Amino acid sequence: MEFKNLLFKQEEGIGFVTINRPDKLNALNIETIKELEELFTHLKENQEIKVVIITGAGEKAFVAGADIEELSKLNMVEGKEYSLRGQRVFSLIENLGKPVIAGVNGYALGGGTELTLACHIRIASEKAMFGQPEVKLGLIPGYGGTQRLARLVGKGKALELILTGDMITAQQALEIGLVNKVVPPEELLSACKDIAKKIINNSPIAVKYALEAVNNGLDKSLEEGLDIEAELFGMVCGTEDSKEGTKAFLEKRKPVFKGK
Ligand code: COA
Question: Which amino acids bring their CB within 6 angstroms of ligand 1?
Answer without folding.
Answer: 24-25, 27, 64-69, 107, 109-110, 133-134, 137, 139
